[in-house]
Write a structure and sequence with these properties.
This enzyme consists of two polypeptide chains, which are synthesized in precursor form from a single polypeptide. GO terms for molecular function: leukotriene C4 gamma-glutamyl transferase activity. It is built from 22 helices and 23 strands. By secondary structure, the chain is an alpha+beta fold. It has a domain at about 5-195 and about 235-290 and about 405-475. The strands form six sheets. Strands 1-22-21-17-16-9-8 form a seven-stranded antiparallel β-sheet. A seven-stranded antiparallel β-sheet has the order 7-4-3-11-10-2-23. Strand 18 (about 530) and strand 19 form a beta hairpin. Helix 8 runs antiparallel to helix 12 (about 235-250). Residues about 1-30 and about 400-410 have low confidence and may be disordered.
């Protein structure tokens, strides 16, 4: 499957986009500082990532965004736990050491392959809007959308968190370890303290003004009025206490004093209070939903369906590209990126028109990834230049409705976890509190989400309703794309990324790199990024991707060079395991090699 020799030859010739992270995408400054001292295994994993090499494993592997979290998950797997058990340990540690990206106050989507049944399924742990919320929540008195950060910061944007319920549900269904012991690594680390990473310190400093607005948040992230410094020892006793309560009863998050403290914090926020009630919490539940799959290179690319747009949009991109010979073009050819860019634009046009919470609005889910529909859309790519304009297609569906195009804004944060266990189970989970540091409200040691700003601030366009408008109890549309790639009924790849709506492009590109261009998982996740969503082609600054600017502009694309900070974490499953961790962040992969 892999064309390693071809790849090496292309790289040796200085091709534009087949270069590894060590050559073209350096990690954020000093993100490995301190982590290498954790264990020889962590040090080796960091060295492998810096060298652009995958980590190998025999029977189990975990890849995630912080070495502390990965080590916690690896310890669970080494002791005979399942991927579901490891997810609990990894996520609760991530919520401590990477609080800006995910945690108890947010939501998550899980794609799960169950080895015993041979079946794929998904769990929807997306946040829900309060029952008292109205569609015009993010509009001013003239009916115009408010400024984005005016909506984000404070209680106005907070939905009922779903991550605690998802973790409990996954553990109840697929776990074999004692629940309380899975929380202990995070409890111990919160009590004993951990060294603030350079990445966390830099993000705190960049967001200090917003973090200073609320006393509990400021006291944690801005001690003595100054941003946390890299290397400082940080404890979080409030978080430890919360986890100890959940260790006794995971449902305690949605009842009693934890839920009430969240409600009081959200509703009492000044100047933008929320509308949460105990009823909102008591009604929350994780939803099991069927996986959405699309074809590419003899594989099924499977992921999370609505309310996520991730699997549908990734699937559409790859489904349209399936009839084009990307292998012959190779990763250095601008024509390959014309095809990828315009396929993405067409998919995003459908995303903006049709995709939302299918519990609230009818959606042509099957029609959007129907091979005949994708083949018809793929015909639009036959040419040499950029499409002058794109528009949504007309997929088949059971209940047609007229929708206007969505206008929601997604800014990058989030985190991704990929796990394969010794029993053959595979987990791919993307987890978030939405914007970096979420709503900036902190309660009981964790930050609360701002997921409601993933809804469209407008309710209608030209008198036509927008599918992703805010409604009571609704789950906002997401771009999270946790993915498991299947071949002949068996998983061969688990992958996902943070990055707002660019998640879709990051994941699609990595899958193309792996399946069409023969890159191993580390090369695929480290590859310089070129992402097109709405017409403007974003090329990753400081990498070989920027060399595409001239050729793409000559084809008619509008091009911008900018930082593109993905966080891809992938595991290839075959004769053993190979793991890759995005060099743009501080994560690693660990296995039992």
């Amino acid at each position: 499957m892999h064309k390693t020799l071809t790849l090496i030859a292309v790289m040796a010739a200085g091709s534009a986009l087949a270069q590894q992270a060590a050559d073209s995408v350096q990690p954020e400054a000093a993100t490995t500082g301190g982590f290498a001292a954790m264990s020889p295994q962590v040090a080796a994993a960091l060295q492998a990532k810096d060298a652009g090499l995958p980590v190998t494993g025999k029977t189990w592997m975990v890849a995630a965004a912080n070495p502390h979290a990965v080590q916690a998950g690896a310890d669970v797997l080494a002791a005979g736990g399942t991927a579901a058990d490891a997810l609990v340990a990894v996520q609760t540690v991530l919520g401590l050491v990477e609080p800006q990206s995910s945690g108890l106050g947010g939501g998550a989507f899980l794609v799960w392959y169950d080895a015993k049944s041979g079946q794929l399924t998904t769990l929807d742990g997306r946040e829900t809007a309060p029952l008292a919320a109205t569609p015009t929540r993010f509009q001013d008195d003239k009916g115009e959308p408010v400024q984005f950060y005016d909506a984000v910061v404070g209680g106005l944007s907070v939905g009922v968190p779903g991550t605690p319920a998802l973790l409990a549900s996954a553990h109840d269904t697929w776990g074999n370890r004692d629940w309380a012991t899975l929380l202990q690594p995070a409890i111990t680390l919160a009590q004993d303290g951990f060294d603030v990473s350079p990445r966390l310190a830099g993000l705190v400093a960049a967001d200090a003004e917003r973090l200073a607005r609320f006393e509990s948040t400021a006291s944690y992230f801005l001690p003595d009025g100054q941003p946390l410094q890299a290397g400082a020892r940080l404890t979080n006793l409030g978080y430890a206490d919360t986890l100890q309560m959940l260790a006794q009863d995971p449902s305690a998050f949605y009842t009693g004093e934890i839920a009430q403290d969240i409600i009081d914090t959200v509703n009492g926020a000044v100047p933008a209070g929320g509308l949460l009630t105990p009823l909102d919490f008591s009604l929350y539940s994780t939803r099991e939903r069927p996986a959405v799959c699309a074809p590419f290179r003899g594989h099924d690319i499977c992921g999370m369906g609505p309310p996520s747009s991730g699997a549908l949009t990734v699937g559409q991109i790859l489904g349209m590209l399936d009839s084009y010979d990307l292998e012959a073009l190779g990763p250095a050819d601008p024509q390959a990126w014309r095809l990828i860019g315009d396929a993405s634009r067409l998919a995003f046009a459908d995303r903006g028109r049709y995709m939302a919470d299918s519990d609230f609005v009818p959606m042509p889910t099957k029609g959007l990834v129907d091979p005949a529909y994708l083949a018809d859309r793929a015909k639009l790519l036959a040419g040499d230049d950029a499409l002058p304009e794109v528009s949504p297609g007309t997929p088949a569906w059971d209940h047609a409705m007229l929708w206007a195009d969505d206008e929601s804004i997604e800014l990058p944060s989030t985190s991704h976890i990929s796990i394969a266990d010794s029993y053959g189970n595979v987990a791919s989970m993307t987890t978030t509190i939405e914007n970096g540091f979420g709503s900036r409200l902190m309660v009981r040691g964790f930050l609360l989400n701002n997921e409601l700003t993933d809804f469209s601030f407008r309710t209608h366009a030209d008198g036509v309703p927008i599918a992703n408008r805010l409604e009571p109890g609704k789950r906002p549309r997401s771009s999270m794309a946790p993915t498991i790639v299947m071949r002949d009924g068996a998983p061969v790849l688990a992958i996902g990324s943070p990055g707002g709506s660019r998640i879709i492009g990051y994941v699609a590109q990595a899958i193309v790199a792996h399946l069409a261009w023969g890159m191993d998982v580390q090369q695929a996740v480290a590859m310089p990024h070129a992402v097109n969503r709405f017409g403007n082609y974003d090329l990753e600054a400081g990498t070989a991707a920027a060399d595409l600017q001239g050729p793409l502009e000559a084809m008619g694309f509008e091009v911008e060079t900018r930082d593109l900070n993905s966080g891809l974490h992938a595991i290839e499953i075959g004769d053993g395991l190979q793991g890759g961790a995005d060099p743009r962040r501080e994560g690693i992969a660990l296995g039992d090699d």
